[in-house]
Amino acid sequence: MATAGKVIKCRAAVIWEAGQMPSLEEVEVAPPRTHEVRVKIVATGICGTDNHVRAGFFPDIDYPVIAGHEAAGIVESVGPEVTICESQNLMPDKTSRFTCKGKQVYHFLWTSTFSEYTVMPEASIAKIDNAAPLEKVCLFGCGFSTGYGAAINTAKVEPGSTCAIFGLGGVGLSVIMGCKTAGASRIIGIDINKEKFAKAKELGATECISPNDFNKPIEKVLVEMTGLGVDYSFEVIGRIDTEIAALASSRLGSGTCVLVGAPPSGSELTFDPKLVLTGRKLIGSFLGGWKLKEALPKLVSDYLNKKCNPDALISHTLPFEKIAEGFELLHTGKSIRCVLLF
Ligand code: PAD
Ligand code: ZN
What we know:
This protein is α/β, with parallel strands linked by helices.
């Protein structure tokens, strides 16, 4: 590549301060160093976690930052000794490859895919089948793999079981797909935004409810609906109150509650220990429990072989320049996944 070893100037969306919309800027992207890869991003989704970065949910993140972590692209150049694969706000050597207007810009999750070119540690990328449509399979980078894996790897949902999913965004809907694949017989979707219900039912929810339609706590509603509670509950919002509701709605004696949503950094989860003393399990799921570097190529070949299909999660496709509109659509609950194309 003619650009190898040189600084590349390209478009990127910089969040200058917590609470601000990303702003389109020209950034300089330095060449990759040892064990790093520079990638030309082709397509990137906007995940709820990116929206948390924009909103300032994570005080441990430094700004200005380039968010984005759910993407597909093409390797442009590699640094020396690329054979391998803390804070992911800087590269592992504690420096940044991005500058804008003379200022250092921070990385996010060692990916920063809201940039036409980005540099990542080799560990953060996975090689996938050349035949894969990048504008679709970018969702395997986070949302789909996270939700689907939370059901099949972390919870290990069993055939005939009952599941409740709190939060029907891109990740929650992927949990539903995982529960359906695992053979759950009853899948209850919970969201305050009823516009999410149609898609949830299309993807496998057998019923959907809104906590706002009841004058009692949603966990009581779920226990009444199921007898002793659901076999598996999943919190896919990122709120403490719904984490406790999800735990309390799992089945007395044997239920499993899986935390997937990311609450603001520094939050504390406090609940009556009787909830777990009475035999419920509480577990967390990060990126669906996969070792993504190995699992992602397999998931993508499953997609090409029509064994799983997250296409239905893509509600919008926009040119990268419209990233602020993409955030607005997610923030206002109008999109599931908006894929940005470069
Ligand atoms: P999203 O914003 O598309 O979906 C969140 C959904 O929750 C929306 O449909 C909301 O309407 C709904 N919601 C909000 N408040 C409530 C409430 N009080 N009661 C019921 N429903 C509510 O986000 P997403 O699906 O992209 O991500 C969901 C969470 O998962 C988010 O916190 C994100 O940071 C986290 C996440 N975790 C991992 C991981 O590895 N654990 C990976 C990716 C995303
Ligand atoms: Zn994500």
